[in-house]
Amino acid sequence: MRILVPGGAGFIGSHTCLALLEKGYEITVIDSYINSHKKSLQRVLDIVKRNNRVKNISIDIEIADIRDEKAVEKLFIRYKDLGNPIKAVIHFAGRKSVQESVLDPLLYWDVNVNGSINLLRVMDKYNCRTIVFSSSATIYGFSNSLPLKENSEIKPINPYGRTKVAIEQILNDTYNNQTDKWKIANLRYFNPIGAHSSGIIGESPIGIPNNIFPYITQVAAGILDQLSIFGQDWPTLDGTCVRDYIHVMDLAEGHIAALEYLNNFEKKLVNLNLGTGLGTSVLELIDTFEKVNNVKISKNFAGRRIGDSCKVVADNCLALSCLNWSPKRDLEKMCLDGWKWQILNPRGYD
Ligand code: UDP
After folding, report:
1. Residue bearing the CA closest to ligand 1, atom 23
2. CB–CB of 119/69 below 8 Å?
């Protein structure tokens, strides 16, 4: 079964491509490489070849933006003509920086929303109506009680989050049209960290990382001087913010489980939280990283970051009950694998 993976060269996308290939799916990736690296998918292939002792495995890669309708359509035509049509899409393509989205909202609305509309239009034209979409926990409002459920209030506070809500709404409207039978899973990610256990693929942010985990690994490696902890006066046990960190391979496997779940139905729309359900504070994360890897993270306390939430933790019961999936790798494994990737690749894919 052939799957189209827009944005498949990025952090979560590349780990999902690996999981797809290991389960025997054929994949085609369309990626602009604006925020990702050419080497990631080559490395995915290296891992699959090594683990499965197979030589003739490939990923068809199209370097293009999903706003480019002709480029997307070309792929659907190619596989239709080959008698191996694209059956489903796992859609990662889009811009993902909250800060950048505040500075350039039009870019975010254009790439994320127009790109998704374009993709859906082409899918519809070629009778491919199964899609797993990368949504985000940033869509939930601050005042919700925890853990966050799929029906908690949706109230994003930045343009990035609002584009994710808009795409979910577009998918919802698409699903509700009377004529076509769509199968749609909106996967609301919590905080993916870590790397594949081989240390061959991982997160390779361009420039100074915004997210805490690559920041920690780069401080531990001596690339960055010190981690600033944003706030020590939050109403949590140790005063630092709490997040639900999930191993990127557990998240990747969640996509395949969602795809396989959708395939049980003739028509389906589901929103699912993909998190572990466990909250970890910034200090607990640093402490675990230091202990399991026997390294020291130089750190200081800074003021709160504008727009941060105190606690973001998933209620993952719906995903656990619907999908043949559960997160298997704990925080220690996330820290071990993420550090392995960092020491084997001090400059990421560069
Ligand atoms: N954080 C921090 N220092 C950093 C980056 C992040 O203390 O350099 C904190 C941030 O305030 C939040 C947590 O780490 O509480 C996770 O931040 P990240 O940006 O990784 O994810 P998000 O805020 O999107 O959940």
Report:
1. 308
2. no
User: Is the pLDDT reported for residue 290 higher than 80?
Assistant: yes
Q: Are 194 and 293 in contact (CB under 8 A)?
A: no
Tokens 């639900």 belong to residue: 244
Domain that holds residue 313: 2-344
pTM for the full model? 0.98
CA–CA separation, 231 and 281 (whole Å): 11
Whether 350 is in a domain gets the answer no
Counting the structural domains of the chain, the total is 1
Tell me the CATH number at 66.
3.40.50.720
Residues 6+ apart with CB under 8 A from 50: none
**Does ligand 1 have an atom closer than 6 angstroms to the CB of 339?**
no
- In the set 25, 160, 175, 261, the catalytic residue is 160
Residue 349 lies in a domain: no
- Dump pLDDT digits (tens) for 295-344: 999 999 999 998 899 999 999 999 999 999 999 999 999 999 999 999 99
Terminal Cα-to-Cα distance of the chain (whole angstroms): 33
In a domain, 160, yes or no: yes
Q: Is 160 a catalytic residue?
A: yes
Q: Which residue has the tokens 């003021």?
A: 303
